[in-house]
Amino acid sequence: MDTVATQLKLALLAISLLFLPFLHATDFKYCDNGGNYVVKINGIDISPNPVVSGKPATFSISASTGQAISGGKAVIDVSYFGFHIHQETHPLCEETSCPIAVGNFVLSHNQVLPGFTPPGSYTLKMTLTGDGIPQLTCISFDFKIGFGASGFSISDA
């Protein structure tokens, strides 16, 4: 019986390791739940998570499309406790390789937040537009900014 119990434990461990990457996935929602977007989002990975002020952070968004995309824009809006605080626009081809072929692709945005960025919960809304397509997709998700290395330590006080 010990061998069967050990094998069962090993099998459960192996299965749980398969799902480990999904445990750290960032939840997102589409801006329009009934929207029929050209680009579908598969998942979001933020590294590090939580984001650290003054340090590089990477937002990787895995997506798929049923239509080839030659270019466009990524508009990023950031809110802090519900107040809009920042907007930036990037050419889509700076966030991923263009042209985007039918199938899966990854948008990757790197950002270094200023060291004085306050810690807390933020909401990021990203809208993708394409050449001749007003809205490829629109999503929002929450992320956290933790305490970073600001050059101040307790010994400085």
UniProtKB/TrEMBL annotation:
It comes from the Eukaryota. Keywords: Signal. Residues 28-143 form the MD-2-related lipid-recognition domain. Residues 1-25 form the signal peptide. This is MD-2-related lipid-recognition domain-containing protein. GO terms for molecular function: sterol binding. InterPro entries: Ig_E-set (IPR014756), ML_dom (IPR003172), ML_PG-PI_TP (IPR033917), NPC2-like (IPR039670). One of its GO terms (biological process) is intracellular sterol transport. It comes from Gossypium davidsonii.
